Amino acid sequence: MSDLNAMLEPGMFVRHPREADWGLGQVQSNINGRITVNFEHQGKVVIDGAQVELIPVFDS
């Protein structure tokens, strides 16, 4: 898992680097590199943090 993914906590906002159409996502959990995110246009998705480096959004 990347250093950025390791710092993600529930409530933080992120975007998926290869799925822009999913929209803004809110982190639900981050356990052992498995990050559950609820995206605006895709719903709840479990991301393997070792495979995808999510992009934190600090000004939604």
What is the mean predicted local confidence, pLDDT?
A: 94
Strand order of the largest sheet: 4-3-2-1-5
The computed structural class is mainly beta
Count of discrete alpha- or pi-helical segments spanning 4 or more residues: 1
Q: Residue ranges: pLDDT <50 for 5 or more in a row?
A: none
For the secondary structure, the number of strands is 5
Proportion of residues in β-strands: 35-45%
Shape: globular
Rg of Cα set: 10 Å
Q: How far apart are the first and last residues' alpha carbons, in Å?
A: 24 Å
Helix content: under 10%
Largest beta-sheet characterization: 5 strands, antiparallel
Written as H for each helix and E for each strand, in order along the chain, the element string is: HEEEEE
Describe this structure as you would to a colleague.
- With 60 residues, the chain is mainly beta.
- The chain contains 1 helix and 5 strands; from the N terminus they run αβββββ.
- It has a 5-stranded antiparallel sheet with strand order 4-3-2-1-5.
- A hairpin with a 2-residue loop joins β2 and β3.
- The longest helix is centred in the first third of the chain and has 4 residues.
Short description:
This protein is mainly beta and 60 residues long. The protein contains one helix and five strands.
Which SSEs are present, and which pair or pack?
Elements: H1 3-6, E1 13-15, E2 25-31, E3 34-39, E4 43-48, E5 55-57
Antiparallel strand pairs: 1-2, 1-5, 2-3, 3-4
